[in-house]
Every structure is written in C-alpha cells, then in structure tokens.
Amino acid sequence: MDDHIERKPAKIRLREIAEKATQDAWEAKLRGEKVGWCASNFPQEITTTLGIPVVFPENHAAGVAAKGGGQRMCEYAESMGYSSDLCSYSRISFAYAALKECPELNIPQPDFLLCCNNICNCMIKWYENLAVELDIPLLLIDIPHLDAFPCDEDRIRYIRAQFDDCIRKLEELTGKKWDEERFKEVMAISQRSSRAWLKAVSYAQYTPSPYSGFDIFNNMAVAVVARGTVEAAEAFEQLAEEYEENVKNGVSTFKAEEKYRVLFEGIACWANLSYTFKTLKNLGINVTATVYGPAFSFLYDNLDELMAAYSYVPNCNVFERELELRVNDAIRHKVDGAIFHINRSCKHWSGTLYEMERQLREKAGIPTVVFDGDQADPRVFSEAQYLTRIEALVEIMEENKRKGARK
Amino acid sequence: MNRMEELLRAFRNIADNPKAQLEKYRAEGKKAVGCMLYFCPEELVYAAGMIPFGLWGARTQAVEAKRYLPAFICSVLQTTLELGIRGAYDGLEAVMIPILCDSLKGMDGNWRYSVPHIPVIPVAHAQNRKTEAGVAFTASQYRKVKARLEEIAGRAITDADIRDAVSVYNARRAVMRRFLELCARKPGLLKPSERNAVFKSSCFMDVREHAGMVSELVALMEEAPAGEFKGPKIVTSGIMADHPNLLQILDDLGYAVVDDEVTHESLRFRADVPETEDPIEGMARQVGNIEGCSVLFDPEKNRGKMLVDLAKKSGADGVLLVLTKFCDPEEYDYVPIKRMLDAAGIPAIQVEIDQQTAENAQTLTALETFRGILGY
Ligand code: SF4
Ligand code: SF4
Q1: Does the beta-carbon distance from A347 to B102 stay under 8 Å?
Q2: Can you give the pTM of this predicted structure?
Q3: pLDDT attached to residue A297
C-alpha cells in the first residue's frame, strides 16, 4: 500500500501532537511525576532534553477561548479581583488555577512554573501570582527586550547563565538528569522542525498561496512548543510537502478565490475566530504574511545563537527590526494591504502598532487598517467595527488594483 | 510664615515647576538628562557633572500621544510622551528609558519617532536581579549608559567620579529615610501634599541642593512638638500617589501618610548603593536589594509582606493602594497583596487615579467611606 496516499494530513498530525503532549502530561501526573506550567516561549530545549512534562497556559487559554469559554473564565477572574484590563490569557489561567477544571479543555495542575518574559513582562506578574497562590516554585529565564539587533554579548552571557541555573534547579526539582548528548539531539531536531516550519510558511509567497493564512495560527503552537520532537519535525516537513504539492496543482486550503493578499498583524481573536476568518474569506482576502513565520523560526548553529534566538521572538526585538521583518514579509509575499489587530490584552504588542502601521504603510506602499480586539475576551471585539474596517481596506485595495491594471 | 512653612512651600514650588528648574540649571551652564520613571542610574549622570531630571508624566490631557499609544496604555506614559511631543522636555540632552514593564518596552520605539530631537538611552535591568549573572548584566548595561553619557558630557567618567556620586546619593538617601521616619513618628506635622512635595521635588533638583533642604526640614521636624494627632493614619502603596486632586482630598479629610511603599516616593531611597570596589557593580547590586515594587521580579511577593510590616510598624490604621489607571503590574499585584493585608487584619482600599482626568468625586467618596471604616 502506498503510505504516501494513506498518511494523515499534516494539519491532523499537528493537532494530534498538541493533544498528545497534553495527554502525556496527564499520564505523567498520574504516575506521580511533577508537571510544570510553562510559558510558550520558554526555551523548550531545556524541558525536552530533561524529559520534563509541561503544559502551556497560553495555549490552554487560547483553546478555552476558541471553544467559547473565554468570557466566562475572564469574568470569573474579575470576580477574584483581577482587572478586566489584564491579559485575557492570564485571567483565564487564574480562573482555571482556582476552579481546577472547565468544560472546554482541561490540563493538569502545576507542581512548578517555568516563566520566560521574552514575549512580555506580564508573564512575570502572572506567574508570580500563580506561584504565591499555589505555593509552588517559580523559575524565570529573563530575556531583556533588545535595544539593538542583533542580540548583544551581554544579553547572551546573561541568558546562558540563567539557562545553566535553570537546568540545575530543574534537576533538583524533578530528579531528572541533564544529558549533553540528548541536548545535542534535541537541538538538531529543533533545527529540523524550524527549517521545515519556515519552508512551509514561505509558500505563501506563491500566487495564489497554497494555504489559508489562518492555518498558521493553529500550527504555530506546535512549532513553538514541540519543535524538539521528531514527530513535529516530520509533520512540518509533510506540511511543507503538501503546500508544495498544492502550488504545483494550483490548489489551496483557502477555499475561495484569492482576490486580495494581506498581512495580518497580531494574535488571532480566538473567541471570534470564525467571524474574523469568514469576513475575510467572503471578501476573497487571504492572509499571506504574518510575523509568526520568521519570528518563530529559532534558527541557530551554536549555543550563543540559541540564546540569541530566544530574544528574536515577537515583542522582544527592537522596533526597527520588528518593522523590517514585516516590511520584508509584506514585500516578499506580495501583499495588497495589512490588517492590524490592536489587541487589548497585549500592551507591548499593541503599544507600538500605530507607528508600525504608519511606517509599514509607507515602506511597503500598501493600505492598512486597524481594528480593536482581544485574543480571548470576546467583549472587546466588535463585529461591526471589524467589518467596516475590512471593507474600507478592500475599497482601497480594489482601487489600487484598478490603477495597477491601467498602467 | 515660619521657616518650616517656607521650606515646604519651596518644595511645592519646585515640584510644580519642573520646566523652571530645567531652565535654571541650563542657565547655569549645566546639562540635564531625562530619567524616565524607574531606577535609571542617576548617579552616572551626576558623576558626569550633569543633572538627572525625572520624567514622571504630569496632570494633563494626552492628545498628540494618542497617535502613538492606544488608550489602554497607562496615563503616566501617555502624559510623559505628550509632554515630550509638546516640547516640555526640550533642553534635555537625552532621555533614559527603562524596560521594566510591557508599556515601557514600547516607549523607546515610539519616542524615537515622536520626539526625535531628544535621543534615547535604553536602560535594561536584570529581572533575575539578585543573582550574580543578573548583577553582571545590569552592570554591563550601566556601562553602556556610561559610555553614552560620556559622549554627551564630552568628558570621561572615572570610577572616582562615580564613587563620589554614589556617596552623595547615599547621603541623600539617609536623610530621606530620616524624613520618612519623622513622618511616621509625628503624624499630622506634614499634610500628605506637603510630604509628597518633598519626594517629588527630588526629581527636578540637584541632589546636594535637595539633600540640603531636606536636612534643614528634618532638623525642624525633630524640634517640632509631636502634638496629638486625631485623624486617620495610612500607608500608601503604588507606582505614584501624586495626583493633585488625590492629595487635596487626603489633606481635606485630615489623613496623615505615616509611611509609603510608593515607587515614586520612598522606594527610591530605601536601599543604599553598596560601596563596592567597582562602583558600577554596587549600583547594579542595589537593584537586587530594592523591595516593594511591582516592576521588579518578586516571586515571593515580598511587597505584600513589606506592606504589612510597614503598616504595623508605623502604627497605621489602614493602607491606601493607589492604582495608576491601566498599570498592569499594579493590577496583578492587587489581588495577592489585598489578600495578604486582609489576612493580617489591615483595612485597605484601592483608588484608581488617571493623570489625564480632573474627576475626583469617586475618590472623594471612597476616601470618606474609608475614613469611616477606620473609625474616624
Ligand atoms: S497576549 Fe501579550 S500580554 Fe498576554 S501573554 Fe501573550 S504576549 Fe503576554
Ligand atoms: S509600571 Fe505601570 S504606571 Fe509604570 S509605566 Fe508601566 S504601566 Fe505605566
């Protein structure tokens, strides 16, 4: 039997990898092993090498929100005294730590916390509170925001020292032992995954794109947290093959005519995913650029580069570099416009987007719009505002196309 | 007017007129460097013969800043950026911007395009600030800052310069701690607004001048009779407790602030810079010694324990948590801290302050009610 025909689509495999990781953590918990709650951009090389079971509160919160529980959980956290201004992922997480279960999605409760603030300092406050609330240890890898690109020696040295310190503490905490050989293996697999991820994402440069840009939101979770596993590497390689195949056959997972190609900036609105996606699809808009490709690629050739790679995630880089990534992606992936999500939850990400929007518009020569939303709290999002803004963008993109055709 | 009243008026006057202070120093031929909010290495500026100048926003309306910052960024940064765009900080050679919260992380980018004529000097502090690696990192960043300051000052900053600056700053910290202690020992001697002016003026003054004035005030406070204070005594906590309306209400309702855990106030003076052989290393170590601040990594929430202690030691009747609107580090801290205060049986209330509004009805009602709860 030809297993090429029989094999599951990459998308399913990726979903299964994510589900299996949670399942493994449950089983470990039942075996009496210690399970951690871990920040999504914490260096996975550490936990994977040590074989420490962890789950990811951000992914959990996104899952809860996508299944409709975001508002209820946020409101519960508010009843505990948390302000509705706070990142909705953290609110969902506080509610879950208090309630211990929810109908949408369950993860094991933590025995320790692994924090990394490369994406935000909100993460520090969130994990501090969990640590005090649950009376469990908290380990922080502090990755200071860059003030220039590339990452400087001082930062690399500091991150490296914390890496070593964290490994030592985790050995004590879990009784597991660090193995250099295994570490090398994990790094190699992670590189394989990252290259395959970048390759898959890059197929959006073709017109039409062989995939729907919203697929990235679902797949990137695995790219971030499970890069170090062979299963993930294989699934991403398969994803790249599928996209390549689609390009050859002129088909796409975007099931509409791709009239316009846009850059989408920011996290998806998980609680409004279907509306945000369908509105675009109905107007023939496909997302062909997001910062998730280049910014979550984690490519490195040695340990210093590994440390530096963790400071290149979105929200950690210096403004000018963040801008450059977007401009390059917008140009390379031939976008007609850009949509900026002013995410109420995410103060750093949103805090520079107005200037980013102006400069991207100018440097990439494309129209842009912003809309207000939130990644997990549906109360912040307005369907009417979103629709109006997207329609306005379409009008300009249409006008530009007409002008282009006349030239 | 007696001498104490004169001094208090002078502090207020300076606190309310930063621009006049800046112009005064410039007229004296001195250069000034902005220190935005938290824990900028002021000693290095001073060591270069320049004036560190605090940027803490102001009571005003953000209009221009709204082109850069979404409405849900805190009013401190909104108004600081607004003042920068409007030219209120013209005359500063540069501005140091730390990255201690998410909103601050975006400030350097925004500042470079909105206030292009005042260059940014980024300041990164280690959050793993008590570890040797953290100290080494903070020190490395301070050295980078030092190099930038040398360019601006047009001269080298020697270790001896830094050691001198550190000892001048530590001497001022010592006198500020005596001031703090007297505010606790003699409640009612200073009104909350007067107490605030002593702290706030420090942001816009040469450290020696400020220390001199505070020393004189402290001596007068020592002499002043303790008197019997009949009003409610509170400890304040938060990023700042500086809004003129808040201070007016506290004055009018007869509150005494007997201690604080406010970043803009006592937290800048509690921890001395250790006098180490390499003075920059000492400055980095100090960051590890600061407690009670929501933007510095605090995995055990020592802030809450410290607040309980301060309230007990100062004989306060309760704690006033002053929340700067849209400040997420403070909003996170509120829940565990309030619980710790509750567990210790210390009455506490939170009021939300927005530098951009003059609205005070809600604050007034809350503080009237709180006074009642405290039994006054
Ligand atoms: S959404 Fe933003 S603030 Fe929230 S956890 Fe993610 S990066 Fe941090
Ligand atoms: S700590 Fe709070 S008040 Fe200070 S800049 Fe950040 S958000 Fe604003």
Answers
A1: yes
A2: 0.96
A3: 73
Residues forming a β-bridge with B324:
B353
ipTM of this model?
A: 0.96
DSSP-derived letter for residue B273 is P
B147 in contact with chain A, both atoms CB, cutoff 8 A: no
Strands A54-55 and A36-38: parallel
| A83 with B110: Cβ contact below 8 A | no
Angle of CA points A29, A35, A38, to nearest 5°? 145
Closest chain B residue to the Cα of A85, Cα to Cα: B326
Query: Given CB atoms, is B312 within the 8 Å cutoff of chain A?
Result: no
**Domains along the sequence of chain B with CATH:** 28-160 (3.40.50.11890)
Can you list the domains of chain A with their CATH numbers?
Answer: 10-173 (3.40.50.11890)
Count how many pairs of residues, chain A against chain B, have C-beta atoms within 8 Å.
Answer: 151
How many Cβ atoms from other residues are within 10 Å of residue B147's Cβ? Answer: 11
Identify residue A24 by its one-letter amino acid code: D
Structure tokens at A396: 């300009």
Answer yes or no: do A128 and B72 touch at CB < 8 A: no
B120-123 and B92-98 as β-strands: parallel, antiparallel, unpaired? parallel
Predicted confidence (pLDDT) per residue in B45-71, tens digit: 999 999 999 999 988 899 999 999 999
Report residue A403 as tokens. 């002008």
Taking only the tens place, the pLDDT of each residue in B249-297 is 999 999 999 999 999 999 999 999 999 999 999 999 999 999 999 999 9
Out of A216-220, B186-190, B277-281, pick the least confident. Answer: A216-220
